[in-house]
Amino acid sequence: MKFPDLTLALLSALLIFLRSTTADVGNLLQHAYCGSTGTFTANSTYDLNLQTLLTNLTTSATNSSNFGFAKSSFGSIPNEIFGLVLCRGDVNSSFCSFCLSQATQQIQNLCPYYKEATIYYEVCLLRFSNQDFLSTTDNSELQYIKWNNRKVTGSQTLFDSYLNYLMNTTADYAAFNSSKKFGAAQLNLYNAFHETYGLVQCTPDMSSLDCAYCLKNLIGEMPKYFSGKIGGRILGVRCNMRYEQNLFYSGVSLLSLTPPAENAPALALAPAPAPAHQGPELHQKMQGTIILCSNQRLSIGSGQGISELKNEVIILAKLRHKNLVNLLGFCLEENEKMLVYELLPNNSLDKFLSDPQKSEQLDWRKRYQIIEGIARGLLYLHEESQIKIIHRDLKTSNILLDENMLPKISDFGFAKLFVLDKSCTTTSRIVGTNGYIAPECLMSGSVSAKSDIFSYGIIVLEILTGRSITDFHGSGSAPNLISFVWKKWSNGRAVRVIDRRLGDTYPINEVLRCMHIALLCVQTDPSKRPDVASVVLMLSSYSMDLPRPSNPAFFMEGSTTTTTNGGAPTNTSADALREQYHKQNKMRCKELSINNVTITEMDPR
């Protein structure tokens, strides 16, 4: 067939374009890492699995619904391979497919027969490995950092502040407003500065908070490498960022920004002047109003890790209840890591119980309000929220009190998320605080909602008696708080353990009913403890008969054990307690939690 001249001209132009595109993609290769987990031979099972995986990843990523992203595994141990690909959010599926095809070929040329490799192109990346890296969103390894050595004209400090505004704003957009987890923005600068363009991206499978955390970490590295420079980029497998003074991405900017004036009432958090335990106040200025808030600051040597703060942010972002602390914001900069809460001026419950003067403010009405409020907060965590959460570190110091003495559960660093129809999990290490840890956690690592119920029972006993778990030293007739209350209860002298600071004005039947409920909560066998819905019903319905509690956990007749830091038995009595537990409790966990962010290090706080 003879083509018209115009058609031939168009075909020639198309061929030239394709050749130039191929060359451009080759020139846009940024970096490649060849792994250290071993090699394979040609035509082996691993080789065949790798070819299948790479083909599947490219096919899946170029499906329009996947936003240029795919992750998968193929094969079985020892030839199982894990892989991930991601195309930049501004390129179309055709160019994405072309880039990934080039990456697939080039990574095998640059890293022949390596079982693990990563390659970064300008608009796509590819990684495969015989190690399962898909189960984590960690971005700290395999980063590629590059910058333009040219410096801006004018104040570098001012430019850096503008750049920080550009990248943080773009990161917030990508994390919280884009299903692609992609953002591209233009910052309109004047005077001595040129317009500056920024781009950020996370893999679309990341949660909004994980994406924000990943990008903020990259932005936190910028001053170290990019101060005053006109361009720079940090590429990672899970998230990446780049800025330039020329337009380097396709299409229009998703955001058009102007730097806030220096005297504008932009959001600013004053630096915290004191450690978290001193309960400092921050003044948050926004649009002419001042909001009082408090902060929890991560201090060196505190035993708290960044993962705990991250876990707490993830948990609290999903929750809203009047009996849970309200998270206002967080800071995860390199040298400042803190959580910012609503101001709770009465501090924590333990401060009231341990202070002779403050405890006089806790009349029975306030104490009952606290007991009931904690139960309702737990009910929300265990049964009413969209996700089931086990707190795992309930204690009086984690119950904060607002100006009306309304209790709010705080400190979710050790919390664990559960699928709603799962009831139990096991963990290899114990978390929590001595004296509040349920026996099944201490002895076999079993964790369930009943673990929180046990801790709640201890808190109620402390409220009723005015005694802390740290008041007992593991010897004498009452080696711990549970034994102290149980012996009086069993002998019909329960009134003698009630806090004398309550005077004679409290309703005795109501107080004793709360004590009865608390003893039900601290029973050794988790299956005998009431669930939180039953606890709330017991507190509100006096027509409901209460079963007689069985011997509680850690009940000791006399001085047969010692304790450490708060009443929990030490290893001197661990064998006896373990034997007692296994005799009385046959509960075993059948389902495991799917959450991977919880911390399971033993570090009493």
TrEMBL record:
One of the record's GO molecular function terms: ATP binding
Location of the Protein kinase domain: 219-554
PROSITE patterns: GNK2, PROTEIN_KINASE_DOM, PROTEIN_KINASE_ST
Gene3D superfamilies reported for this sequence: Gnk2 domain, C-X8-C-X2-C motif, Phosphorylase Kinase, domain 1, Transferase(Phosphotransferase) domain 1
Annotated coiled-coil segments of the chain: none
Any one of the GO CC terms: membrane
Pfam families noted in UniProt: PK_Tyr_Ser-Thr, Stress-antifung
InterPro entries the UniProt entry points to: GNK2 (IPR002902), GNK2_sf (IPR038408), Kinase-like_dom_sf (IPR011009), Prot_kinase_dom (IPR000719), Ser-Thr/Tyr_kinase_cat_dom (IPR001245), Ser/Thr_kinase_AS (IPR008271)
The Gnk2-homologous domain, residue ranges: 28-133, 140-248
Name of the featured protein: Cysteine-rich receptor-like protein kinase 10 isoform X2
Source organism per UniProt: Carex littledalei
